[in-house]
Amino acid sequence: MHTTKQLFDLSGRTALITGGSRGLGLQMAEALGEQGAKLVISSRKQNELDEAVAHLEKMGIDVVAMASDLGKETAIKPFAEAAIKHLGHVDILINNAGATWGSPAEDHPLEAWDKVMNLNVRSIFLLSQAIGKHSMIPRQYGRIVNIASIAGLAGNGANMQTLAYNTSKAAVINFTRTLAGEWGRYGITVNAIAPGFFPSKMSRGLLETMGEDAIKRAPLRRLGDDEDLKGAVILFSSTAGKHITGQTLAVDGGVSSVLI
Ligand SMILES: NC(=O)c1ccc[n+]([C@@H]2O[C@H](COP(=O)([O-])OP(=O)(O)OC[C@H]3O[C@@H](n4cnc5c(N)ncnc54)[C@H](OP(=O)(O)O)[C@@H]3O)[C@@H](O)[C@H]2O)c1
After folding, report:
1. Containing domain of residue 203, as a range?
2. Which residues, at least 6 apart from 47, have a Cβ–Cβ distance to it below 8 Å?
């Protein structure tokens, strides 16, 4: 029997966070590190990774950055191997790196469709497979957290034209359920977080045009802030979440719970 504090403690655990250089990934890296996990964060831009490492180290967090383009299939296996080598094993995998594209459906470029689906869906499959097969399954333990979106729970009105993005995030949600069903027998939980609107580089343009509207539509009348994902990611990553798998938790100020 654990105390409640112990249930949420990640001391001695290791975590790999993709897209950990900024935005939601960096927020979750802070949370996992503060709870005691040793981290590898990744993204493409080395300068942003260096800044994130300096920031996390200042908080007393044990972290290493590995630059990798997860849009490139051939990069994923060596990246997974390097992360396992550095950490010894990976207890927690946060599949957070993602991309979006705005375009009317009738003009949506195929190239952009492929880019979004490739990073948001295919790379999550490949990285989960590599980490699962070579670290989590052999150790019969793992926590996988996929960052979906409320855009994966419903379509948009005509203002938000992100057909590939919504399609990819819906795929992430059923990927989560299906992998949870297969890997539960190995002691691996697989859950998803569906964030609502959070200010970040990705959402900047969108929030400039419809930020006020998003706030009005949210039952809690607010956007997500720089700590709102922390509780959900720690729940799914810790012993506290050991009986939860295949689930998607919207962290969205209530946006997805109302019709209008
Ligand atoms: N912000 C929101 O309102 C919101 C809402 C719902 C869901 N989400 C989801 O949350 C996740 C994080 O989004 P965010 O808002 O924090 O966006 P962000 O600030 O643009 O961060 C995206 C992260 O992913 C990395 N990345 C992008 N392409 C990559 C690639 N090909 N290979 C490796 N890393 C790559 C970026 O670094 P580099 O560019 O250096 O590679 C960055 O670290 C995404 O999955 C997004 O769909 C966000």
Report:
1. 4-251
2. none
* Centroid of ligand 1 to alpha carbon of 124 (angstroms): 13
Read off the pLDDT band of 159 (50, 70, 90).
confident
> How many domains does the chain contain in total?
1
Query: Looking at the domain assignment, is residue 256 inside a domain?
Result: no
- Report how far ligand 1's centroid is from the alpha carbon of 102 (Å): 15
pLDDT digits (tens, 9 = 90+) for 19-46: 999 999 999 999 999 999 999 999 999 9
In a domain, 99, yes or no: yes
Q: What is the pLDDT of residues 193-251, one digit of tens each?
A: 999 999 999 999 999 999 999 999 999 999 999 999 999 999 999 999 999 999 999 99
CATH number at residue 84: 3.40.50.720
Q: Does residue 140 fall inside a structural domain?
A: yes
* Active-site option among 8, 79, 165, 197: 165
Can you give the pTM of this predicted structure? 0.99
Atom of ligand 1 nearest to the CA of 147: 45
Tell me, yes or no, whether 77 lies in a domain.
yes
